[in-house]
Design goal:
Shape: elongated
Largest sheet: 2 strands, antiparallel
Number of helices: 10
Distance between the termini: 29 Å
Strand order of the largest sheet: 1-2
Oligomer: single chain
Radius of gyration: 18 Å
CATH superfamily of the largest domain: GntR ligand-binding domain-like
CATH class of the largest domain: Mainly Alpha
Number of domains: 2
Structural class: mainly alpha
CATH topology of the largest domain: Four Helix Bundle (Hemerythrin (Met), subunit A)
Order of helices and strands: HHHHEEHHHHHH
Length: 219
């Protein structure tokens, strides 16, 4: 299965390693919807489409398997991961643990620059397509985790976001809030006030509302 626009876009990044090139190409095609769940991925065809050897593609696939985006079956092949309601629920449970604690820490540790970036992420959310709105609101969550100033929380967050993205795109019928909704502002207001417990509670309410809607759609 050769790549579409995702591979072409990534190919321009000459400063990155070949493994990273292959990783981002496949990841972009999965999360962008060019590769649907259950689609086989050919190591040889992907290497040919990128103009690289098969070794970095193999290494990239190993990382993508660890991230939960692809599944490798001996003697059968490599496929884009399917996601069950259980997969999504467990991913959201981990995300809630990470992001609620991050919101509490962010209220205590955020800088003025952090707040400026968070406000901009909510102010600049485009009114257009689903993907562009989703990406901008995802930036808001990432900024909160960054403001917690805990690198292990950031690593845990990075480990859940791809699975959450995949689940959200599978549940495409769920309408995203026309940007942004009150729950995002409640989180930001609590962080701006330095109220850790309120930030944690607001984040929990927000994530659970989204999780419930998505899980209902995946059943």
């Amino acid at each position: 299965m050769t790549s579409g626009t995702g591979a072409k876009a990534v190919r321009a990044g000459s400063g990155r390693s070949l493994r990273q090139l292959a990783y981002e190409s496949i990841r972009t095609d999965i999360l962008g919807g060019d590769l649907a769940p259950g689609t086989p991925i050919s190591e040889a065809e992907r290497a040919e489409s990128l103009g690289i050897s098969r070794t970095p593609v193999r290494e990239a696939m190993q990382q993508l398997a660890q991230d939960g985006l692809i599944e490798v079956f001996p003697k059968r092949g490599t496929f884009v991961a399917r996601m069950s309601a259980r997969d999504a629920r467990e991913s959201f449970e981990l995300r809630e643990a990470v992001e609620t604690f991050a919101a509490r820490l962010a209220a205590e540790r955020r800088t003025d620059d952090d707040l400026d970036r968070m406000r901009a992420a909510l102010t600049d959310v485009p009114m257009g397509g689903r993907d562009s709105r989703y990406a901008r609101l995802a930036d808001f969550h990432r900024l909160i985790v960054h403001a917690a100033r805990n690198r292990y929380l950031e690593q845990a967050f990075d480990g859940t976001t791809d699975r959450i993205d995949l689940a959200s795109r599978l549940a495409a019928r769920i309408p995203l809030p026309q940007p942004p909704d009150a729950s995002h502002h409640a989180i930001l207001d609590a962080i701006e006030r330095g109220d850790g417990p309120a930030a944690e509670a607001s984040m929990r309410r927000h994530l659970r509302h989204h999780a419930e809607a998505l899980l209902q759609d995946l059943r």
